[in-house]
Amino acid sequence: MRVCYFGTYRAGYSRNQIMQEGLRRNGVDLVTCQAPLWGSIEDRVQAASGGWVRPGFLHRLATTYRQLLTAYRQVGDYDVMVLGYPGQIDTFLARLLTRRRGRPLVLDVFMSIYLIAEERGLAARHPFTGRLIRTLEGLACRLPDRLILDTAEYVTWFGQTYGLAAERFRLVPTGADDRIFRPVEPPSRDDRCFRALYYGTFIRNHGVDQIVRAAALLKGEPAVRIELIGTGPERQHAEGLARELEAWNVEFVDWVDKEELPYRAAAADVCLGAFGQTEQSLRTVQNKIYEGLAMRRPVVTGDSPTVQAALVHGHHAYLVPRGDPAALAEAILTLKRDPALRERLAGEGYELFQSRFTLAAIGAQMASHLREVIDSWTD
What we know:
The chain is an alpha/beta fold.
């Protein structure tokens, strides 16, 4: 099976790296055909905020697609084209190219760009752009022969929002890159503090404010420390909230190299997942949750039907109600007092990861879906 991985997708984004390496590990001949369109988060926010109508962005778009077409001419034959995330904007060109080659097209939707724009307030501040993104995404999802998402709950949302039939979708969970996220020897520590670690983008989806509020409830526990690594639009708010609540037990750290994260996790006693109450947060299982499992660390994360479909409370992770900082604080104290529970969560979570969410396992699921669409196309 030869796969053309096509588009303006973010080559460094974890979803795309996991999918590509996973397919390679399952014997797929993968050829990438990618031209970068998007830069930083600020760049994407500016485009979604109306910057797409500016001549500079339109020129960049035209230049990017010229580069993409030039690269495509060198690809040769393939069995199926896959659009990496985000690929909604690429489906219109990709459909034309695959029709000419007589090949099926698969879009790894992964996340709704409209839902992200809505949750970050971009659709409210720029209603016309918001409506345009929704229309574009709805049209884009009708063009491919198969759509890929990570959870059944997200499939339901796409069906309700765009009227897409559930049978058009197949599921491939997020998983984690086990080349990077793996168990490592914990560094020696000269203190007796109990440390809880969060890392990620500071956005509503992740509910960092809930972590800060839980930390404030734990400030009477001098041996508990909360480390928050990352940046993002909610970082300033989280820092202000920590000052307001006098949560002196919270430490804010800027981004560190991805390769350093397993050592940070090994130095912590528990890893914190996502606690947001947004539609996006409730319908997915975030990378950091799978990564915690992959590093053989006990994970505490917000509960939801989506999370329950992947993890069992008290076995693979410790689940707490969302929007309840007191429950999160109590979970941290419970794990502090119960080393045996921490070890069970770490061990059983790691076993689950090894069986279902490694690069090889993710790639096998994706390869199976691609073979299915190829077979149906040639029948």
